[in-house]
Specification:
Length: 292
């Protein structure tokens, strides 16, 4: 495997973790000097991949954090099985625990974007002690609804009939009328198309079912007692901002709204997103009791 040119930071390395479910690809970025902060583990959303965090990696590493951004099973460079059960939220959450074990077992700061937030929540509920904190980035309290859910239901028969190429053709037609998609450069468009086609069709279907069927587990997460930051774009078009705001209140969590961002603040507003993450983690360090 090789790094795609969209990962411009030469200090980022592409690594493969050998896990019980098979190899999992990740982007690793180490601080230039001795680490001064805990490791950060970043988990992408539905149809995403580790590259979604490429712009954040150097900013977090510059603040002293080793950072690892992973594919989820069946995404891009991480092969997945044909068994739908492998893509259930709790199964994917268990895989994140295997990632932490592969890193040596030290508690990490966990960041989950969108569907990756639901998976990250599951990992926390399975083993709270594996984590220092959780960031729910553009994620919600329960199943996705609205236009994005309707689009997923529309695409399902295309996957079943024609596989990922048929879905990609349909998405190309939709994006032809989307000014945001048309603003992408050729290199990014080529990457997004290649990434989608490299994924698992079974994984796409099963993750979609999981995303549309996730129960509300906010109460369970609050009871786990882990520090949580709810972070989302000002104009999020997946889980509405008011839904995420209400979730933050129910969790007793910190809350950060990224001005101008929609559903992907890690690429739409990189510096404000990094600032919010680093401020959250720094606040946890300040609140931790010192030596007695």
């Amino acid at each position: 495997m090789e790094l795609h040119p969209i990962v411009a930071d030469p200090a980022v390395t592409l690594v493969t973790l050998q896990l019980p479910g098979g190899p999992l690809a990740a982007l690793r970025r180490e601080p230039a000097g001795r680490p001064t902060g805990a490791t950060v583990l970043m988990v992408p959303g539905y149809t995403g991949s580790k590259e979604d965090f490429r712009l954040l990696l150097p900013l977090l590493a510059a603040a002293g954090h080793p950072v690892l951004a992973v594919d989820q099973r069946g995404q891009f460079q991480s092969p997945g099985p044909d068994d739908p059960a492998a893509y259930a939220v709790d199964a994917l959450g268990t895989e994140l625990l295997h990632v932490i074990d592969a890193l040596g077992g030290e508690p990490v700061h966990l960041v989950g974007h969108s569907f990756g937030g639901l998976v990250s929540r599951s990992a926390v509920l399975q083993r709270p002690g594996a984590f220092r904190s959780l960031v729910l980035m553009s994620s919600g309290p329960a199943a996705l609804g609205g236009q994005r859910a309707e689009m997923m239901q529309f695409l399902r028969p295309l996957v079943e009939a024609g596989g990922l190429p048929a879905v990609r053709q349909a998405l190309d037609a939709v994006e032809a009328d989307d000014p945001r998609a048309q603003a992408y450069g050729d290199e990014l468009r080529d990457f997004l198309r290649a990434r989608f086609l490299a994924g698992s069709a079974e994984g796409l279907l099963a993750m979609g079912d999981a995303l549309l069927g996730e129960p509300d587990r906010v109460g369970d997460l609050r009871a786990a007692g882990l520090p949580v930051l709810v972070l989302h774009g000002e104009h999020d078009d997946a889980w509405p901002p008011e839904v995420q705001t209400e979730m933050a209140s129910r969790l007793g969590a910190e809350h950060a709204v990224i001005p101008g961002a929609v559903h992907s603040p890690a690429v739409e507003a990189v510096e404000p997103t990094a600032t919010a993450l680093l401020a959250f983690w720094a606040g946890l360090d300040e609140a931790r009791p010192g030596p007695q």
